[in-house]
């Protein structure tokens, strides 16, 4: 019933910035934690960032900590990922997801709904 639509990906030079959005439709995501994962060619899906349903707690993967910022606007049913100081290693398809009721934020299987991937390409 809940649909997630990720957008905002594109091509950017190293050191640049990009802002991803994830819009939810069908049902509000107010009571759900949300997260971002990414997957590069030949790599497993990697945890990027997550945010609690209240927005009061955020979590980041080690590779993006200090560079990326996750936020959400429950009134707009939208989650964001601000990506700064982008590196070529950040090149991947980025997925937004809704977390299930239990478990941690770090593992893909803890999430029960996934949006479309949006391609982020960072050139050298």
Topology:
Blueprint: E1 3-7, E2 11-13, E3 18-25, E4 34-39, E5 46-51, E6 58-60, E7 68-73, E8 78-83, E9 92-99, E10 111-114, E11 118-123
Parallel strand pairs: 2-11
Antiparallel strand pairs: 1-3, 3-8, 4-5, 4-9, 5-6, 7-8, 9-10, 9-11
Strand content: over 45%
Percent of residues in helices: under 10%
Name the shape in a single word: globular
- Low-confidence segments, given as residue ranges, are none
- Number of helical segments with 4 or more residues: 0
User: What structural class should be given to the helix and strand makeup?
Assistant: mainly beta
Order of helices and strands: EEEEEEEEEEE
Q: What is the CA-CA span between the terminal residues?
A: 40 Å
Please give the largest β-sheet: 7 strands, mixed
By DSSP, the count of extended strands is 11
Computed over alpha carbons, the radius of gyration is: 13 Å
Quote the average pLDDT. 93
Structure characterization notes:
The protein has 124 residues and is an all-beta fold. Helix content is 0%, strand content 49%. The protein contains no helices and 11 strands. It has strands spanning 3-7, 11-13, 18-25, 34-39, 46-51, 58-60, 68-73, 78-83, 92-99, 111-114, 118-123. A hairpin with a 6-residue loop joins strand 4 (34-39) and strand 5. The protein is globular.
Features:
124 residues; mainly beta; four-stranded antiparallel β-sheet
Short summary of the structure?
With 124 residues, the protein is an all-beta fold. It is globular.
